[in-house]
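Please produce the structure of this protein holding thiamine diphosphate.
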Amino acid sequence: MEVPGEESDAQGMEPLRVVEELRRVLPKDILFSLDTGDHNHYFGAFFPIYSPRRLLYPGGWTPMGFGPTSIIGGKLARPDLPAVCVTGDGGFLMVCQEVITAVEWGLPVIWVVFNNQTLGAIRGGQLASYGGRVIGTEFSENADYAALARSLRAEGLTVSRYAEIEDAIGHALACGRPCVVDMRIARDPAPPPIAGMWFEPERDEIPPRPRS
Ligand SMILES: Cc1ncc(C[n+]2csc(CCOP(=O)(O)OP(=O)(O)O)c2C)c(N)n1
Ligand SMILES: [Mg+2]
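Below is the modeled complex.
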């Protein structure tokens, strides 16, 4: 796949390039969970899952927080597999206290936070529908998710360049502890080149549902 080059990572990394790197450096056989938001559109076509019963993803318009929490249950069920969640920063903030649950239970789960400083999926809708205006969907201060993880007694790493991804993931896999990787992603990246997993038809095309 064609992805933007190294020069773009100063403004935040391009999701497609990060997906490609993650697939390259992660083992083939892992438990993998996604959350709800723009970030997951990039994984649908470009992050192959090689075995059944490995992907925790609840489908289209789904509750944020599912990805970061379901991976804890997944790791309990399959402690033999590396357990990796990719979540948005908004979804992670909804349930990030569960990092300490994994610490308590001694579960070496990896959370990769796609930190684009926005509720990207909603901001995108606002930009498209309201003439470029947004409200309430941008985080003006960038939180430090690695420091947050360390405060919860987990490992925490920050990645802002493509070249750092391999070492960070290698450390997360080897450290044997819960680990949060704060992945600095562009707020306005190249869109995914295919329809995302949400596939939202035009609203007036949705047939009315009979009430039962
Ligand atoms: C509990 C819950 N609240 C609100 C929503 C609506 N919603 C869908 S995506 C989204 C923003 C997600 O932001 P983030 O997790 O940062 O992911 P990004 O789109 O930036 O990749 C929101 C608010 C939801 N799906 N679930
Ligand atoms: Mg976000």
